[in-house]
UniProtKB/TrEMBL annotation:
Every RSE1/DDB1/CPSF1 C-terminal domain range: 1-140
Species this chain originates from: Eleusine coracana subsp. coracana
Protein name: RSE1/DDB1/CPSF1 C-terminal domain-containing protein
Family statement: Belongs to the DDB1 family.
GO cellular component: nucleus
PANTHER family, per the entry: DNA REPAIR/RNA PROCESSING CPSF FAMILY (PTHR10644)
Superkingdom of origin organism: Eukaryota
Length: 171
């Protein structure tokens, strides 16, 4: 559970998904249904979710107020899912979309294709999830590439670096 309305789950095709309660629905039948609001291919089989953080967070910082869920996989991967404020999510989603134009995937695999939710019933583009590893890779770019990304984003390299570094403090 991410909050009182949104729940997170994982399934055996290495995908994550989020669903929302339909609390505002007119009928009991509609309220009983969960609406899928997020889909993402993680590439790992998640077997545990827990509320919490791997780092000490200062309560007076903006980052300290962001709720996080830790997950563990059968391969030993530990990851973080954070419920970002809408404006921060929109900004980071734009950064992620920009970065895929500058950073090639392993084996030249398209990032969008790799992160697309797929199982036996459907394939869908990833939605409502961000790839923190990809976003944090901005900090590993050369200064020239950082400037190109910043120009597309219409912000300074310093501002972009600051916002990405803030994200790294979540884990």
């Amino acid at each position: 559970m991410l909050d009182d309305e949104i729940y997170i789950g994982a399934e055996n095709n290495y995908n994550l998904f989020t669903v929302r309660k339909n609390s505002d629905a007119a009928t009991d039948d509609e309220r009983a249904r969960l609406e899928v609001v997020g889909e993402y291919h993680l590439g790992e089989f998640v077997n545990r979710f827990r509320h919490g953080s791997l780092v000490m967070r200062l309560p007076d910082s903006e980052i300290g107020q962001i709720p996080t869920v830790i997950f563990g996989t059968i391969n030993g991967v530990i990851g973080i899912i954070a419920s970002l404020p809408h404006d921060q999510y929109v900004f980071l989603e734009k950064l992620q979309s920009t970065l895929v134009k500058f950073i090639k995937g392993v084996g030249n695999l398209s990032h969008e294709q790799w992160r697309s939710f797929h199982n036996d019933k459907k394939t869908a583009e990833a939605r409502s999830f961000l790839d923190g590893d990809l976003i944090e890779s901005f900090l590993d770019l050369s200064r020239n590439k950082m400037e190109e990304v910043a120009k597309v984003m219409n912000v300074s390299v310093e501002e972009l670096s600051k916002r990405v570094e803030e994200l790294t403090r979540l884990h």
